[in-house]
Design a protein that fits this description.
The protein has about 250 residues and is of the alpha/beta class. It has nine helices and ten strands. The strands form two sheets. The protein has a six-stranded mixed beta sheet, with helices on both faces. Strands 2-1-4-5 form a four-stranded antiparallel beta sheet, covered by helices on one side. Helix 3 packs across helix 4.
């Protein structure tokens, strides 16, 4: 299987998704298919509906008219924890670790939460799996450190590591690079590209356009809750409506 293989059924299918808050329509009839293994960029100005969309995908928000199908199953009415166990994980722009725990303990909690009961994994099994993820993220040396002592880039890596501990099929990365230096952005981007190379489908929400362009096979731009462009990165960024809405030109 190649990344974003168009011959395969979509991993995620969103149909006619609308989300209203009182009289305000945050998302208006959004429909999109995301392919298995695809690197998918989601952009748009502040208030365009990006976070609302990922909250609907993850189950944090209930949708109005909509159909959300994941891995062939209609998950539209499933609660967030069940969606996580089905294989949808997200990281947060502002990391939310258990601050009284060590780095590896944070991962073990996530791994334990999503473990299939029939696997009957031991605490040692969870620890071994967590250490393997930390090594992949370059955080093995910080395994026993308290999260309060981590740098910003280390916190972002740990946030991704916690998401990976749930063994996702789909990873939603919500501005994992915000506020980082240029070299730190490259570190996180390289990690996301590495994960995508392991056949994990990734939706990247990001304002750093160089990172989005380098990462994405397709980009979707939202504005005022509607899709205004979707396609290859060069096509989307050349779109006059995208330039007006997102770049302000």
């Amino acid at each position: 299987m190649t990344a974003g293989d168009t011959t395969l059924a979509p991993l995620l299918r969103i149909g006619a998704l609308t989300k209203r808050f009182g009289g305000f329509t945050a998302l208006d009839n959004v429909s999109v298919d995301i392919r298995p293994g695809e690197r998918f960029g989601l952009i748009g100005p502040n208030g365009s509906g990006k976070t609302t969309l990922i909250n609907c995908i993850s189950g944090a928000f209930r949708t109005d008219p909509a159909t959300i199908v994941f891995n062939g199953e209609d998950i539209t009415r499933l609660p967030p924890h069940v969606r996580t166990r089905r294989g949808i994980a997200r990281s947060f722009q502002i990391p939310r670790p258990f601050r009284s725990m060590t780095v590896i303990e944070n991962l073990m909690v996530a791994a334990d939460f999503t473990s299939a009961t029939h696997l009957r994994l031991t605490a040692e099994d969870h620890r071994d799996q967590a250490m393997a993820i930390l090594r992949e993220m370059g955080l093995a040396a910080k395994a026993e450190a308290r999260v309060t002592g981590l740098s910003q880039v280390e916190l972002r890596k740990m946030e991704l590591a916690r998401a990976m501990a749930t063994r996702p099929k789909l990873l939603i990365s919500d501005e994992a690079m915000a506020g980082l230096s240029g070299s730190e952005v490259d570190e996180v981007l390289d990690l996301l590209l590495k994960l995508a190379g392991e056949s994990i489908t990734i939706i990247m929400i990001e304002h750093i356009m160089q990172a989005v362009m380098r990462f994405s096979e397709r980009i979707m731009c939202l504005d005022a809750g509607r899709i205004i462009a979707i396609g290859q990165p060069s096509e989307v960024m050349a779109n006059a409506r995208v330039q007006e809405a997102y770049l302000g030109t």
